[in-house]
Write a structure and sequence with these properties.
With 131 residues, the chain is an alpha/beta fold. The chain contains five helices and five strands; from the N terminus they run βαβαβαβαβα. Helix 1 crosses helix 5 and helix 2 packs parallel to helix 3. The chain starts with a strand and ends in a 7-residue tail after the last helix. One of its GO terms (biological process) is phosphorelay signal transduction system.
């Protein structure tokens, strides 16, 4: 079972996304603040973090910057109302695997899950090289 951390102070905006993920054997843990999310990833391994545009204590992209400093290898998707070009510019270097629109729907959840599974399958098949 995969584990996803959903950081948002508007959890109701994610009902369709969350329902789809939960129906696909993914456990979701919800938090409202970036600070709480950062604290949680220090103690627990998540397959994916989804951050909203606005958290209770910071902007989503600010949280993504903090996330990269804490764990640069973690998968992160971000909700953003920016155009794809503006989002790319604002998030460059943060390693965000996917931009999601505000109030993501089932089709967005399907694309996210497909992308995440692809990454998890690739990393599961990587074997350390011997020197």
């Amino acid at each position: 079972m995969s584990l996803v951390l959903l950081a948002s102070n508007k959890q109701e905006s994610f009902s369709e996304l969350a329902e789809f993920l939960e129906n696909n054997n993914i456990k979701i843990i919800r938090v409202e603040s970036g600070e709480k999310a950062i604290s949680m990833i220090k103690d627990q391994i998540f397959d994916l973090i989804i951050t909203d545009e606005e958290l209770s204590d910071m902007k989503g992209l600010e949280f993504a910057r903090n996330l990269v400093l804490t764990n640069p290898m973690i998968n992160c998707a971000a909700i953003s109302s920016l155009s794809s070009e503006d989002f790319h510019e604002a998030s460059e270097g943060l390693g965000i695997l996917m931009q999601l629109p505000p109030n993501p729907e089932k089709k967005h959840a399907e694309a996210l899950l497909k992308h995440l599974n692809s990454i998890l399958n690739m990393t599961a098949n990587v074997k350390p090289q011997k020197d």
